[in-house]
Every structure is written in structure tokens, then in C-alpha cells.
Amino acid sequence: MKGLILSGGKGTRMRPLTHTSAKQLIPVANKPVLAYGIEAIVAAGIEDIGIIVSPETGDEIRECVKDGARFRANVTYIKQDAPRGLAHAVLTAESFLRDSPFVMYLGDNLLQHGITPLVEEYRSLNCNSEILLTKVPNPSQFGVAELSSEGRVVKLTEKPQHPKSDLALVGVYMFDENIFDAAKAIKPSKRGELEITDAIQWLLDHDFTVHPHIVKGWWKDTGKIEDMLEANRTVLDTFERDVRGKIETSSAIEGKVVIEDGAEIVDSVVRGPAIIGSGARVVHAYVGPYTSIGNGCSLEYCEIENSIVLENSTIAHVDGRIEASLIGKNVKICRTHRKPAAYRFMLGDNSEVGIT
Question: Which residue in 27, 125, 136, 323 has a CA-CA distance of 20 to 30 Å to 209?
Fold first, then answer.
């Protein structure tokens, strides 16, 4: 069995961060989201993994994952010229996948219990496809599955205006070779993409077996900033206390806090769950619950909580508490003493700043 991870989307809902970085590499609890997917596939006993990449962000993903050896995987990179839909991605990877059943995993998804139960069930059922489903409060924003009273998949609809079910398709699917015929038979949707829901519906219409698997535990789609922060909170809650950095005696480390090698905490309070990355310095500062501080960051005379700060960023001498924020790499947020007193910003497209 093989794995296929989709990492070719443009991440428009995560701009401006995704103007310069792949959305799948934005970290949750200081680990790229993509790494969670690779680890889940390897944990299910699958080592041969293809990663769909775009021309814009493919090099960055290759630099992060390399040949996959550190994940105990063999990684092949497959370029998709443009995001033309999930079924198009399957066709793009056909030469890599054709000789094996495979799991397709959207690279910005997180699953509490991984995919091992799904893979094991698929292997035992001898069906043509298996889809992962979960109940959601807003099914119109997802592909939706309708099940019969016996629990069989009856119909799939992509983002219906009036959904007949609250069961959304999670971004994990199992397929055999029949999915290629399905993807070739369907037409692009109104948004110009080959939808995987249409391809699976084709399988159903042609009497192939599609088995539903209901998710146990949480599932997070990290496609938006608020989703990233929620995923960060959820993952940090699973951590145990692990303090390896340098802590001055005047500092207080409270609760489930991870402080990595080379980090330094001086005259500060870090209240977990939280993680402070390698080489970071926290001086006369407060880091509150559900905060991830990346490697090499510097925090001085500031307060922050429920936030993600990417590597090598600086926050210094900021009045008031920063919260519910996602701060990119090499960012500087600091108070200046230049006159006249005023706010001064240098912000990229689609940035958002809240001032109270």
C-alpha cells in the first residue's frame, strides 16, 4: 500500500503567511502540519509516500521533508501544475500509485488517533474505497455524505447549500485502482475542479463498494487562522511537562510546559500548556496557555497567550497582552520612541491588525 499527501494548494485563506510559505509547513505546537500527516501514514505501516507539490512551494516542502528518511519513509515528489481539484491530483499521481491501493491524505489535516484504524479496516474489508466521516455543525462548507438506514453510503455532495446530512468528508480516503477510471469519467465542477466527491459518487453509481468510517476523536482542518489556533490548543493539551532549557530561579514555569534545549527563560512566567522552541529567549515576559514560541524567537517585556509565533521573530516592549495571534517568521513587533508618537506598520497583503 502507498500514501499520497496533497500539499499543492495555494492556501488563500492563510495569507499573508502563504504568500511566502506553504500552508502545510505552518507549525502546530512547533511542528509543521505536514509532518503530522507523514507520521500518521508511517504509523499505519505505509512507507512509500508521494507528495503532491505546486511549482510555487514545492522547493520549500522538499527542503523540509527531503527524502523522508527522518520519518522512516520513502518520499516521491509529484508536481501538479495548478490546483485543479483532488481528483485531478489523483490522476497526476497515477503513474506512482497505479500498482497499489493507497491512502490519500490532505496535508493540512490533523487527526487525534491517526489513520491506523482506517487502514486496518480497509485491508480487512476488501472494498474499493473507504471514506473518513465526522459530524460537523456546518456541513455546507464540506463534502457531505448521506448514509442509508443500514449505514451504507448513498450519495456524496460537494458543499451543498441545503445538506441532508451532518457527516462531512474528512480529508482522508482509501482507494484501489478503480478511482482512476472514476476521475477520468467525471467533468469539472462549477468552480472548474475535478471533485473527489464526484469521483466517489461515480464509484457508487457503477456498483463499486464505498465503505464509511466514522472518526473517533478530534479532527482538525487547519485551512484558516482560527483553525490553526484551535489545532495548536488541541495538540498542546496532549503534551507532558518537559523542561530542558535554562531557567533562572526568578522565573515561574507552571503546568504542562515544554522548553526545548537552548531556550532561556529569565524573570518570566510561562504557564502551560505551552512550548518554547530551541534557542528562544523569554525575558521579563509572560507566556500564557496555548502558546507556541518558535525556535530562535525573542520575547522581552511583553505578554502573549493563545498564539503561534514562528521562528526568529521578536516581540519587545509591547503594552497590553497579545492573544489569538499567528505571527510569521522573522517578524519584529516592538515599541519605538520616535516622535511624533504614532502607530507605524509594514504589513503584507491580506494582513489583519487589531488595536484596542
Answer: 136
- pTM for the model: 0.87
In degrees rounded to 5, what are phi and psi of residue 30? 65, 20
Q: Tell me the CATH number at 302.
A: 2.160.10.10
User: What are the pLDDT digits (tens) for 195-251?
Assistant: 999 999 999 999 999 999 998 878 887 777 888 899 999 999 999 999 999 999 899
Question: Could you write out the three-class secondary structure of the chain?
Answer: CEEEEEECCCCHHHCCHHHHCCHHHCEECCEEHHHHHHHHHHHCCCCEEEEEECCCCHHHHHHHHCCCHHHCCEEEEEECCCCCCHHHHHHHCHHHHCCCCEEEEECCEEECCCCHHHHHHHHHHCCCEEEEEEECCCHHHCEEEEECCCCCEEEEEECCCCCCCCEEEEEEEEECCHHHHHHHHCCCCCCCCCCHHHHHHHHHHCCCCEEEEECCCCEEECCCHHHHHHHHHHHHCCCCCEECCEECCCCEEECCEEECCCCEEECCEEECCEEECCCCEEECCEECCCEEECCCCEEECCEEECCEECCCCEEECCCCEEECCEECCCCEEECCCCCCCCCCCCCCCCCCCCCC
CATH of the domain at 77: 3.90.550.10
Q: Is the separation of the CB atoms in 191 and 198 below 8 Å?
A: no
Residues 298 and 277 in one domain: yes
Give residue 253's domain range: 239-334
From 235, 252, 275, give the residue that closes a domain.
Answer: 235
